[in-house]
Write a structure and sequence with these properties.
By secondary structure, the chain is an all-alpha fold. It has one domain. It contains three helices and no strands. The longest helix is centred in the middle third of the chain and has 34 residues, at about 20-55. The protein starts with a helix and ends in an 8-residue tail after the last helix. The model has no long low-confidence stretch (mean pLDDT about 85).
Length: about 70
């Protein structure tokens, strides 16, 4: 019985995904236009973090982050 419940909990999300693949493909097609912008932005962010790490300035980042408090 435990294996049946575990298998259903594992399989049901995949069934829902398979049923909604048509709707999801439309959303993915719209999101594909933004992927280039997101890729470039995340790449620039990683380069900036790498430069801070290389120059031993990560403490500078921790000093400035509280100024951008998002209330999260």
């Amino acid at each position: 019985m435990l294996l049946l419940v575990y298998s259903m909990g594992l399989g049901i999300p995949f069934l829902f995904i398979a049923l909604g693949i048509d709707r999801a493909s439309g959303l993915l097609h719209q999101a594909r236009r933004l992927m280039r912008v997101a890729t470039i932005a995340s790449g620039l962010f990683l380069v900036a973090l790498g430069a801070l790490l290389f120059s031993n300035r990560m403490g500078w980042l921790s000093q400035w982050l509280p100024l951008f408090d998002l209330g999260i």
